[in-house]
Amino acid sequence: GAVVSQHPSWVICKSGTSVKIECRSLDFQATTMFWYRQFPKQSLMLMATSNEGSKATYEQGVEKDKFLINHASLTLSTLTVTSAHPEDSSFYICSAPRGETEAFFGQGTRLTVV
Amino acid sequence: GQNIDQPTEMTATEGAIVQINCTYQTSGFNGLFWYQQHAGEAPTFLSYNVLDGLEEKGRFSSFLSRSKGYSYLLLKELQMKDSASYLCAVMDSNYQLIWGAGTKLIIKP
Predict the structure, then answer these.
(1) Per-residue pLDDT tens over the stretch B32-71
(2) From chain A, which residues contact B within 8 Å (Cβ)?
(3) B45 vs A103: CB contact, 8 Å cut-off?
């Protein structure tokens, strides 16, 4: 079964609104979670590293004020896309490492901004 | 810089064997992962290699040579459902996954 749960699996929102995506580790604690974005036919692009109890680390070119990340507990990280625009439409995926040898992914969230 | 290379697309016949290669140059090495990704879905874990050699899991096997910065994923007895993208990813010294662009595998009857 899934060890990382991501919700929602898909969402349609209007331009200018905000959308929150949740990522939960189900049977282990994750002090670190990773948020990725995937454009069609492209590889996963790391957006940011979410750290429990401290600020997220954003990759170059990712707007931290637009993509708000909160790692509220050892099992939950959230990504909020603020003031969404059609160009933000994409597939967002979270990942949580377990120990040093495993990395599990959420089911992904397909965001469509209309 | 960090770089992962794998072929863009491969075609194989149902029932046959296919090998998908992956070469990498990264800042540190904490293991290499292979994932399968069907269109519109999140990647699913296939294998993890951190030591040199071959790891076999049913129809799938993965090989690693750290000195050569090289890995391959071997798929045997191909089935139509194996049509997917196969992603090679290396965990670097900061435990972040560096991704290849993926290999689209097309299985023909």
Answers:
(1) 989 998 876 778 878 889 899 999 989 999 999 999 999 9
(2) 6, 32, 34, 42-46, 49, 91, 93, 95, 97, 100-108, 110
(3) yes
Per-residue pLDDT of A45-90, as tens digits, reads 889 999 998 899 999 999 999 999 999 899 999 999 999 999 999 9
SS3 A20: strand
Ordered DSSP codes for A58-74: EPTT--TTTEEEEEEET
Half-sphere exposure of A74 (CA within 13 A, CB side): 4
φ/ψ of B102, rounded to 5, equals 95, 150
DSSP reduced 3-state for A26 = coil
What is the structure's pLDDT at A100? 65
Contact A21, A110 (CB under 8 A): no
- Which chain A residues are Cβ-neighbours of B41 within 8 angstroms? 107-108
Dihedral (CA of A78, A82, A85, A88) sign:
negative
In whole angstroms, give the CA distance from residue B78 to residue B83. 9
